[in-house]
């Protein structure tokens, strides 16, 4: 029987500092929200402040730590079986956590529903507790399909319902379920292919579901108005086209999706974002109803495998993106109007920080509150897992993270 390391959550949450490492992403900006053209500048390389873990494990000069200003920070011990000594970890020994839905709270004891892509198992992951079975959804986990996204109902506090994007033997679909109950279909018939089966679910500020669907391995379907593949769909909780859609009676909110990683938004819903993977690059889109996804807000030509995202712009000035191939976090500097103003800072890559930290391949990310998010790892899906993988981890970028790079 698997056991987990129990720890008391008593210290402040982590402030993860961005490094000065810059990607070679292409300079393809969409600054229409700012109403002005982006002018590149050449700022000095930002200093790299120390990475500080939630328990002060890096750079803490408290009693007994031996981490004074001129001393080397004490590294976190490696995992021992399912015991993980990094206090950013709240759940261990799961299998390919491709879906995370954080439960809102004050962040002092964060929790989330975590979905395993291949098994369809959903568990409640919470700080200070062992993961607990919540429900299981039958899925076809072959290829890139399976359980690939979770979202809490807009009325979760009252109805305790959760929406999941899954692959079945015949299609991709959105289902609705409650704890311990069988899933009920909400939106079915989304085309299935050998690839392109990933989907992402989010909610907008008006209580509608936003569903990003893959192109089922056929890029032409993304532009086909008759297909549900390769779209961002906006539906109500029963799966019908939501009121206020660009075309009344149609569920289509935007077209041009290929292999979505995640949907995220700010607290007011004024900024909506989608990460996507194209054949030649990974991209971040600003979502606007009725507008096709043609010009990314940012592009990565090195294809790090963009996955989840979290809009921390109000608290930090950054949009944070997880990557499931490069295995790092990337902070994109973004204005309140939603304009990307420079290259992303890369951190949690095992190179930046004192000591450097990495959790390996990261997948879905979901916000607990405007300054705290949770993410899953997918190291058992092509990565290099440690004994405590796969995990659910806390993501808390520092408000003093370094500046953006030049164009």
From TrEMBL:
Q: List keywords of the entry alphabetically.
A: Signal
Q: Where is this region: Disordered?
A: 37-82
Signal keyword on record: yes
Tell me if Signal is a UniProt keyword of this record. Answer: yes
Q: Which residue stretches does the UniProt record annotate as biased composition, category Pro residues?
A: 41-52
Which residue windows does the record flag with biased composition (Gly residues)? 53-67
Q: Where is the signal peptide?
A: 1-27
UniProt name for this protein: Glucose dehydrogenase
């Amino acid at each position: 029987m698997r056991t987990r390391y129990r720890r008391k959550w008593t210290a402040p949450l982590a402030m993860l500092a961005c490094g000065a490492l810059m990607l070679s992403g292409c300079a393809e900006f969409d600054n229409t929200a700012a109403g002005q053209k982006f002018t590149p500048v050449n700022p000095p390389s930002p200093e790299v402040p120390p990475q500080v873990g939630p328990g002060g494990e890096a750079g803490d000069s408290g009693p007994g730590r031996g981490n004074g200003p001129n001393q080397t920070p004490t590294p976190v011990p490696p995992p021992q079986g399912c015991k993980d000594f990094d206090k950013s970890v709240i759940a261990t020994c799961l299998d390919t956590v491709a879906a995370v839905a954080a439960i809102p709270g004050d962040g002092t004891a964060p929790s989330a529903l975590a979905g395993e892509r291949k098994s369809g198992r959903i568990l409640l992951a919470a700080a200070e507790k062992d993961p607990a079975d919540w429900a299981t959804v039958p899925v076809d986990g072959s290829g890139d399909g399976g359980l690939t996204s979770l979202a809490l109902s807009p009325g979760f506090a009252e109805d305790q319902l959760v929406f999941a994007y899954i692959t079945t033997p015949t299609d991709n679909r959105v289902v609705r379920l409650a704890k311990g109950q069988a899933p009920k279909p909400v939106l079915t018939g989304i085309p299935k292919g050998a690839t392109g089966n990933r989907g992402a679910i989010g909610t907008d500020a008006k209580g509608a579901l936003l569903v990003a669907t893959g192109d089922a391995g056929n890029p032409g379907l993304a532009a086909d108005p008759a297909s549900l593949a390769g779209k961002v769909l906006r539906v109500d909780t029963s799966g019908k086209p939501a009121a206020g859609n660009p075309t009344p009676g149609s569920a289509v909110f935007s077209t041009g999706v290929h292999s979505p990683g995640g949907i995220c938004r700010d607290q007011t819903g004024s900024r909506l974002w989608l990460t996507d993977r194209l054949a030649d690059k990974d991209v971040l889109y600003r979502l606007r109803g009725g507008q096709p996804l043609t010009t990314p807000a940012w592009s990565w030509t090195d294809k790090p495998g963009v996955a989840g995202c979290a809009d921390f712009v109000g608290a930090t000035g950054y949009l944070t993106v997880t990557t499931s191939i490069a295995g790092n976090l990337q902070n994109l500097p973004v204005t309140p109007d939603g304009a990307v103003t420079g290259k992303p800072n890369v951190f949690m890559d095992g190179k930046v920080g004192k000591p450097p930290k990495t959790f390996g391949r990261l997948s879905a990310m979901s916000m607990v509150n405007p300054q705290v998010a949770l993410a899953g790892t997918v190291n058992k899906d092509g990565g290099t897992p440690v004994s405590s993988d796969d995990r659910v981890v806390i993501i808390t970028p520092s408000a003093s993270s370094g500046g953006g790079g030049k164009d």
